[in-house]
Amino acid sequence: xxxxxxxxxxxxxxxxxxxxxxxxxxxxxxxxxxxxxxxxxxxxxxxxxxxxxxxxxxxxxxxxxxxxxxxxxxxxxxxxxxxxx
Length: 85
Fold this sequence. Notes:
Layout: H1 9-22, E1 37-42, H2 53-71, E2 75-80
Parallel strand pairs: 1-2
């Protein structure tokens, strides 16, 4: 296969874009998994707060739930560190 000396981006973009439209890549949920999803967002402790056993207990419960849902076949996400303040 011989390569052209120059690359025609316009024709490549047109060809690829048409393929994307044909395969409905732009519709909502085009790449969505067919598996049921389960997620937990973990907020960080407050800046002024003091860490205590309640934080560890809460994280342990979340870990248990995520692992349990994963074993049930859910596509799981345990997202740490989202700021809630």
